[in-house]
Amino acid sequence: MADSLHTRYMAASAAWRTHRKGCATCRYPGQHCEDGRTLFERFADLQDAYLRTLRAP
Q1: For the chain, how many helices (H) and strands (E)?
Q2: Residues in contact with 27: Cβ distance below 8 Å, sequence separation at least 6, in sequence order
């Protein structure tokens, strides 16, 4: 499961970075267009989940 979670986390990170490069609004920290907000939230949620698995005993 952790490998699958890691794969989804990395894919979400790549999608967010790709979007941010082409979006004038999302280039600024803390600002997101509608699509950017969705991508960033997915990335952040998956990152949190993945980091929780690393900390789990």
Answers
A1: 2, 0
A2: 20, 21
Q: Encoding tokens for residue 26?
A: 């999302």
In this prediction, residues 9-28 reach a mean pLDDT of: 95
- The Cα–Cα gap between 1 and 8 comes to 11
| Residues 6 or more apart in contact with residue 35 via CB below 8 angstroms | 19, 23
Q: Mean pLDDT across the chain, nearest whole number?
A: 92
Residue 27 DSSP class:
T
What confidence score (pLDDT) does residue 56 get?
79
Element (H, E) at 57: none
